[in-house]
Design goal:
- α1 (5-24) packs parallel to α3 (82-107), α2 runs antiparallel to α3 (82-107) and α6 packs antiparallel against α7 (183-206).
- 26% of the residues are buried.
- The chain folds into 2 domains: 1-112, no CATH class; 113-209, no CATH class.
- The chain has 209 residues and is mainly alpha-helical.
- The model has no long low-confidence stretch (mean pLDDT 94).
- The chain is built from 7 helices and 2 strands.
């Protein structure tokens, strides 16, 4: 962790930076802020101003720290290469900034299509994850942790190579859906990304791999 100390500090500051922006914008923000939206980009959930400005960033900071601490203390952490660990250090901070600033923009009356923003953000995340997934070696924190993948290194490697392509295709579909904004597409893509690698891994296991 010592060599990643500055990245951890910088990432943590970036994660809560929307709170600083919220303080600057405090007098311009409404007392109730929309923080949840349906498939038609209509708000269907609201939070108080303190909850939106402080609650969301600090909740994401907690998630960020838990992810980093769990990864850093993985018994097989030597199998988690530098690029993957850097991705873990910066993933939640970027999500925090994009999500919170989009919420502020909507609260201030700007014309933001939150559905498009979410689909683009998730699409890019999936493509990035897909490009790194096949490089993940056996560990207990990062990757597809099933009884069969943890039992067999070959099963792990084959499953993650396949999962990498599934994530990349899923990411492209999310980017396409940023223009279509179809809930059905999101559901199908998420199910595909979750279950295809699991089923493939189980088939390999039944073949003795």
């Amino acid at each position: 962790m010592k060599e990643y100390k500055m990245s951890l500090i910088a990432g943590s500051i970036l994660t809560i930076s929307p709170s600083l922006a919220g303080i600057v914008l405090w007098n311009r923000l409404p007392e109730k802020i929309a923080t949840h939206f349906d498939q038609h980009n209509l708000a269907n959930g609201w939070s108080s101003k303190p909850e939106a400005v402080f609650g969301i960033p600090f909740l994401l900071l907690l998630v960020h720290l838990l992810c980093v601490i769990a990864t850093a203390n993985d018994p097989k952490r030597k199998n988690i290469n530098r690029r993957i660990f850097n991705m873990i250090l910066w993933l939640v901070p970027m999500v925090s900034v994009i999500t919170c600033m989009s919420i502020y923009a909507l609260a201030l009356g700007m014309d933001i299509d939150i559905g498009m923003v979410v689909n683009i953000m998730v699409g890019i995340m999936f493509i990035v994850l897909g490009n790194y997934t096949h490089k993940v070696k056996q560990n207990y924190t990062v990757g597809i942790k099933l009884p069969w993948t943890l039992h067999s290194e070959e099963n792990w490697n084959r499953t993650h190579r396949m999962a990498g392509w599934v994530l990349i295709v899923s990411g492209v579909l999310f980017l396409i859906n940023s223009m279509l904004l179809k809930t059905e597409v999101v559901l199908v893509v998420v199910l595909m990304a979750v279950f295809m690698p699991m089923i493939y891994s189980f088939i390999l296991y039944k073949k003795g791999i």
